[in-house]
Amino acid sequence: MKWSLQIGRLFGIPIRVHVTFLLLLFFIAYVGSKQAGQTGAIFGTISILLIFVCVVLHEMGHSLVAIHYGIEVKDIVLLPIGGVSRMEDIPEEPKKEIAISIIGPLISLGLGVIFFFIARAMGQSTSFKEFSVFQGNLIATLFWINLMLGLFNLIPAFPMDGGRVLRGILAMGMDGLRATKIAVSVGQAFAILLFFFGIFFNWWLALIAIFIYLGAEGEERMVVLKSSLGKSSVGVAMITEVHTVSPDQTVGQVLESICHGFQQDFPVLENGELVGILTKEDIFSALHHHEKSALVRDVMKRDFVTTTEDAPLSDIFKKMTSRKLSVIPVMRGRKLEGLINLEQIGKYHMICQEGQ
Ligand code: ZN
Q1: Residue range 152-201, pLDDT digits in tens
Q2: What residues have their beta carbon closer than 5 A to ion ligand 1?
């Protein structure tokens, strides 16, 4: 994720914080100092850092269960609104999806219980009046934060963990697409209720409701596309009339081809062998740093993913979206057969499949 800094690794998973999270720290320290002077600022900073640790534990739960099922976890990113475990792919088996999703809220609720008993053991009150990020009873604050984190994430609406649990449960008795559609409708109905409740009682809830509504919609679109690509293979959607370039051409020459044609990413062939890929981004960054006279061989990507005509289109779609690849060359042995990109997959989904 752009604008995020790695602060360490846990069980081999990089933990990153987004810059906006650091801004939140400054903001909390500032508000704390306004409310209770220097102690308010220090208290605010410490409580946010401890909440941050609790969020990491929640996300760590998702990530470790995912790794247990053989799913690659790229990293955990901390944003001001919470954490995200970025995974290569979400499993289609309902039991695995349920396990990965439910563990996070369970950890948060478990932490809540622990803080509750610590507060009791120390003879401190845990009433909601004690809840403050800026002053007072830190243990009670952590109890309430974890309780809310656990319950909020159990809301059965995408993109909350509870939405995935609901889909998993439904998918045990029906196909995945129908389960997703029902889970999305439940989530959106919930979002609409929350929105109206929010307008009257708390604007934050109304904002969160919009976020849930849009998240559910995005999830549905993704699953519908994936399932409609289901049985198709790369061969039916790839571009077969491919313009290739040579490593000795200049970036300026390739730029001409972009201006006068439809293609934006180019396979680089040397003596008939694929040696690299030159994407539109490579060309623009070359123009930014070098001259138009830079050679293709000096700016092309030598490390790239390839596929074959019979590979399932849905797998390639997942790979392209999760790794942010703009184009993948389609090979038969060592011979280049075509190119596949997201635009082409979208076009196939919209146009070519009609009438089938
Ligand atoms: Zn979660």
Answers
A1: 889 888 778 998 899 899 989 888 888 888 988 998 898 899 899 988 98
A2: 104, 153, 161
Please give the distance, rounded to the nearest whole angstrom, from the Cα atom of residue 204 to the centre of ligand 1.
20
Q: Domain of 125?
A: 1-154
| Domains: count for the chain | 3
Domain identity same for 132 and 27? yes
Residue 291 has pLDDT above 50, yes or no: yes
Q: Which residue has the higher pLDDT, 339 or 126?
A: 339
Query: SS3 for the chain, per residue?
Result: CCCEEEEEEECCEEEEEEHHHHHHHHHHHHHHHHHHHHHHHHHHHHHHHHHHHHHHHHHHHHHHHHHHCCCCEEEEEEECCEEEEEECCCCCCHHHHHHHHHHHHHHHHHHHHHHHHHHHHCCCCCCHHHCCCCCCCHHHHHHHHHHHHHHHHCCCCCCCHHHHHHHHHHHCCCCHHHHHHHHHHHHHHHHHHHHHHHHHHCHHHHHHHHHHHHHHHHHHHHHHHHHHHCCCEHHHHCECCCCCECCCCEHHHHHHHHHHCCCCCEEEEECCEEEEEECHHHHHHHHHHCCCCCEHHHHCECCCCCEECCCEHHHHHHHHHHHCCCEEEEEECCEEEEEEEHHHHHHHHHHHCCCC
203 and 248 within one domain: no
Q: Does the structure show a pLDDT above 60 at 355? A: no
Specify whether 92 is catalytic: no
Q: Ligand 1 centre and the CA of 75: distance in Å? A: 14
Q: Give 215 Cα–ligand 1 centroid separation in angstroms.
A: 14
What percent of the chain is predicted at pLDDT more than 90? 16
Q: Which residue, 189, 204, 229, sits at the end of a domain?
A: 229
Same domain, 244 and 216: no
User: 59, 97, 219, 220: which one is catalytic?
Assistant: 59
> What spacing in Å lies between the alpha carbon of 62 and ligand 1's midpoint?
7
Residue 218 Cα to ligand 1 midpoint, Å, equals 18
Indicate which CATH number applies to the domain containing 249.
Answer: 3.10.580.10
Same domain, 100 and 32: yes
